[in-house]
């Protein structure tokens, strides 16, 4: 329960930052924010969403402007 509360306290802010970074095409911020979310989501057992964040992180790291971030 405590782990989930820790996640929840940062999740809204991180998801908001990720959405803004995607809208702005800010690949370094996408990479960093997706990385943080990926780890936090894995810790609470949200494997599918964590895997999606891994995809976003990789696209950001590779500066892949062809990645469809709208999925």
Layout: helices, strands, pairs:
Layout: H1 2-24, H2 27-43, H3 47-61
Helix pairs in contact: 1-2, 2-3
Short structural summary:
By secondary structure, the chain is an all-alpha fold. The protein has helices spanning 2-24, 27-43, 47-61. The termini are far apart.
Describe the structure.
It is globular and about 40 Å long. With 71 residues, the protein is mainly α. The mean pLDDT is 89. It starts with a helix and ends in a 10-residue tail after the last helix. Helix 1 runs antiparallel to helix 2 and helix 2 packs antiparallel against helix 3. It is 77% helix and 0% strand. It is built from 3 helices and no strands. The longest helix is centred in the first third of the chain and has 23 residues.
């Amino acid at each position: 329960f405590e782990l989930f509360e820790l996640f929840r306290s940062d999740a809204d802010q991180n998801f908001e930052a990720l959405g803004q970074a995607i809208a702005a095409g800010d690949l370094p911020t996408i990479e960093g924010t997706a990385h943080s979310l990926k780890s936090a989501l894995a810790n609470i057992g949200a494997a599918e969403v964590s895997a999606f964040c891994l995809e976003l992180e990789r696209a950001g790291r590779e500066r892949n402007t062809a990645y469809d971030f709208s999925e």
